[in-house]
Write the structure tokens for this entry.
Amino acid sequence: MTPSRYICAFQLVRKGAKEQTWYLACRVSWNACHDSVRASLGYIVEPDKWDPLSQRCRPRSYNGKRRVPASMINAEIEATVRRVGELFDSYGPELPGPAVVGADLRRVLGSSGARAAGTVAQASLEFISEGVSKSGWTEGTVKKFRTVFRHMEGFPHFRTFAGFTSDNLLGYVEYLRDGLDLNNTTVQRQVGYLRWFLAWAEEKGYLTRHDWASFKPKLRQSVRPVIFLTWEELMRVRDYTGRPYMEDVRDMFLFGAFTSLRWSDIQGLRWSSVSAGAVHVTTRKTGDPLTIELNRWSSEILDRHVDDGNPDDRVFPEVPNQVANRYLKEIMQACNIDEPVTVTTWKAGVRTDTVSPKWQLVGTHAARRSFICHALSLGIAPTVVMQWTGHSDYKAMKPYIEVTDRTRRKAMDLFDGPQ
């Protein structure tokens, strides 16, 4: 984004001199302020709850008859800034003529703002804002719902709450499957998130129809294989050497495989949380306090990093999840983690089998899966494993138990010797 090419400002305006209601507007100027476009964002904001310096609503304030929270309005402002920036970025070095830029800006401002109270778009912002402030949603959860709402924006029947009829819900499944080319498993997950939002909307009084409650499509799916590393593969990864930052990613993955910690918790781990032969963490995803005893493998990794001097007392450097996944695939390929794995997906009634080398399917979460599978195959009781992993539902352990049952069967067969 190149802010010098344009100015994106927010202000309160009145429609008439005698009008006592102030509306939030966005004004975008370019060509050294010779050209500009202004549009209302559809929110009423009281002047004493507006900070003209930061051009944001004052924290913890509420505006208009509907008492819209400042967090939701400020989120809309941020979204508008992002969309305007993306528009100017898309033009490249040379801007089109004023008429083209003006038309594009009116389209962008119209899609991000001017939303009447009670629309699905506005409620979606409130839903996310409330989830973050009241339930402590992580960035991952917020990202999932933003994807859901982005998909909904492309389905015209869902622009108002009156559109959530049984027929339209069925049409939405077809839109996800055929229009967006999503497989059955992804569609089923999207419907689940949508039902979560609609239950919230009904509780808030935004949704008066109850069709969603009985809408539970049964789409044919296959169980996705549990991707984990065998003990021999873990030892190969342990012996991997490469560039320093690649070895950091290797150690973080192995630490997860020997402790069950999620990647987010490994990144947040501080030396002050390591004591008495254990790590003590409050998980970022669920907020559960966990104590996980160290073993020889996890202790060995900590010993390698005791003098790293990372900022904020961190044990490991910060490596974003996406970057880590890319590096892990490179590491796994170098370690010849190439056992063929078949993944079966369904789209409508069509089955597709895709065979890939395991290294292509390994991500950060494979470390946690590896820990669970090996702990269970060693005969450690699931209830003990759950105390380390933080799982509260025995049902969540079932896929791992099924995998380790097969692993133990293969191991026992080795006693039979060659036939």
In short: The chain is about 45% helix and 15% strand. The two ends are 67 Å apart (CA to CA).
